[in-house]
Amino acid sequence: MVKSMSEDDEKITESRPYAGVGAAERSARRRTALLDAALDLLAEGGGAAVTKRAVCARARLNDRYFYEHFDDRDTLLEALSQDVTSQGIDTVVAAPLAAGPDIRTRIHAAADAALGFLDTDPRRQALLLHSHSTPALQQGRVTTQHAIAGAMAAVARELIEDPAPLDIDMAAYVLVSGTLELVTAWLRGEFRTGREHLVDIITDLLFAGTTNAPQALPDSR
Fold first, then answer.
1. DSSP structural state of residue 216
2. What is the pTM of this model?
3. In b/e form, how buried is each residue of 175-199, taking b as 16+ CB within 10 angstroms?
4. What residues does each domain of the chain span?
5. How far apart are alpha carbons 2 and 9 in whole angstroms?
6. Residues 74-211, CATH architecture
7. CATH 1.10.10.60 for domain 12-70
8. What letter would DSSP give residue 191?
9. Phi, psi torsion values for 215, nearest 5 degrees
10. Cys-Cys crosslink for 106: which of 38, 40, 96, 120, Cβ 3.0 to 4.6 Å?
């Protein structure tokens, strides 16, 4: 009975505002701290460096707060990948809006914003560089590719008359996955060129792929 009352008291304490900060905001801050710690560790030592103990130590939080948000290390890494992807898509989608009506100019703005997003916080590059180091990061990369391809396909459908939806989805996935592989190889130093040239190359590839995306064909059945 005493133990039960203690747990109830603890829950009540957690729900009360502390220093003017409500329980929901404190919980969100802890989640952010855990994800930030995981990104630090990933950038410093790869996927193997991201352990529950290391993340909690870096975030200065105990296990209880880890399990408040994540079941295990894999769900943490998946959440990290999803969060960074969401932030990146928001950045990339916003960039063309200020770039004018020209399609190629818009694509260039989006490509430049994507690389700028990686440069703004170099730790984000670790998600690409170490994306094959754990099953969770591999799954995160696939989810990322589908998310970005979905956004690109949506734009392509607005530019093409009578589009073939499935074909556009597949074409967008090829372009996005190939672009991510190219950027990853560039980050590893496999292509000795500057960022501006890389942006131009990506722009040309995406422009060609978008403006020549598949249109609906007659049903041959």
1. P
2. 0.81
3. bbbebbebbbebbeeeeeeeeeebb
4. 12-70, 74-211
5. 11
6. Orthogonal Bundle (1.10)
7. yes
8. S
9. -105, 165
10. 96
